[in-house]
Amino acid sequence: MNFIKSHKIAFILLIVSVGGLIVYGSFDNTPEEVEEDVLPTVEIRSVRDLSLGDSGLDVIGQVKSSAEANLKTQAQGEIVNVYYKIGDQVSTGSIIAEIENSTQRASVLQAKAGVKSAKAQLSIAKSGSTSNLSNFLVSFRNAYSVADDAVRNKVDQLFDSDDSLTSGVNWKHDEFSLRVSVNQERRLLNDIFEDWLVLVNNPTDDTDYLFNESKKNLERVRVFLYNVSLLTLGELNGTTSISQDVAYNYKTNVSLGRNSVGGVLTSLIGSYTALTSEGSGDSQSVLIAEASLDQAQAGLLLAEASLEKTLIRTPISGEINAIYVEKGDFVSFLQDAAVVANNDALEIEAYISENDRSRVLVDSPVLVSSMYKGTVTAVSPALDPVTKKVKVTVGLLEEVNLTNGESVNVSFENREDREIDTIIIPLSAIKIGSSNTVAFSVKDSFLVAHPVSVGTILGNSIIIEDGLSLDMDIVLDARGLSAGEKVEIK
């Protein structure tokens, strides 16, 4: 009993002690500290400044020559000479390399001879020279030579040893009858040329006969060449063992042959007319001679154009940056041959996104590789079909230590005066709710919500399609804020 009683006393004393502390506390007059409300601090910026961006635009560009030529072959054949090496300086028109062209050179010489002959005929027609017979005999012999060359040198490449059109070409099936006719005519021409050669080596005094025989043979050869040209005018597209380059050469040779025969026929007629006319200086003879000269000059131009295609020639002055051909190589049509550039006239070529196009204007300042000053010289009005970006060309304003083809950093500086057609703000400046998306402005220290329509997200920014104007000031960080909340502006 005494043990239980002592515990009760102890418990009562504990209660009294606690109660005393409570009473003492209730009578403590020490004032408590009252915490004041802390206002959220916000930072505001104008929509215009945000859309301009705080910094310039940095992209990777490539150093290019403002004058650069990528040379390609214009004919097929073996490279017989390479006249320069990488690093050499060349002037406009220099021949970098040459494709085998003995046939083309012979055609040029022959065409030049034809021009000289035609000029002589014109001179005779105008002066009334008495050497008309001699000139006619020259034209008569020349007629055989040109016709023989056109058939046996230029066109016979299309025929096998039995004078049949080569089986290596997929001739169109609907031209079968024409092919048969061409094959037959080619065999008959052998006999015609044999008889013609006998007449050339031993001409008679009957100039009428010589003229009529030569004219008849030339016209027959012309028809033959015309029919061959019909077969080679586009029917070589589907070849089996003959490439398009070889087909192109066939067509060129047939065309050269037709022009040569046409020219020599005109010359023959002109010389015969001068011989048989009562007044060799009459206007008709002059007109015929002038037409003959025009024909001969056209043939020369065609021959020279064919020769020119075998010469790999630079259209600009500069330094050879690359050569892709070597002597002995066999090249095809439109194969890369060389690159010539003016390495002292450099510019930068860069590409920017469509959304950044409004940030770059012509004449905008540019910094290249963080050290060289430049300016925007051109901005493409459309997207590049390959890169799907906008091409920008940058001109350099000072001497630079850069290499053609080098990749460099290009910094486009901001321009405060540029027109802004797209509002772009940080993602943090909008608050996305369940029913709407808003940005906040501050009025009289209270937040005002502005519902906005948003567009494409650009990294840490977003395009605002509607709801904001450029002259508005908005809160940079809308996270955790609510409309009507009182804030303090930083």
Describe the overall structure.
- Helices cover 39% and strands 25% of the residues.
- It is α+β, with helices and mostly antiparallel strands.
- It has a six-stranded antiparallel beta barrel. Strands 4-11-9-6 form a four-stranded antiparallel β-sheet, with no helix packed on it. A four-stranded antiparallel β-sheet has the order 8-7-5-10, with no helix packed on it.
- Helix 6 (207-232) runs antiparallel to helix 7.
- The radius of gyration is 46 Å and the shape is elongated.
State mean pLDDT (0 to 100 scale): 81
Count of helices?
A: 8
Number of strands: 24
Overall 3D form: elongated
Q: Please give the largest β-sheet.
A: 6 strands, antiparallel, barrel
List keywords for this structure.
490 residues; alpha+beta; conserved putative lor/sdh protein from methanococcus maripaludis s2 fold; Elongation Factor Tu (Ef-tu), domain 3; 6-stranded antiparallel barrel; 25% strand
SSE topology sketch:
Layout: H1 2-26, E1 41-42, E2 44-46, H2 47-52, E3 57-65, E4 68-72, E5 77-82, E6 89-90, E7 95-99, H3 102-127, H4 132-155, H5 176-201, H6 207-232, H7 244-276, H8 283-308, E8 311-313, E9 318-323, E10 330-331, E11 336-341, E12 346-352, E13 365-368, E14 372-383, E15 390-396, E16 407-412, E17 423-426, E18 430-432, E19 437-443, E20 446-451, E21 453-458, E22 461-466, E23 473-475, E24 488-489
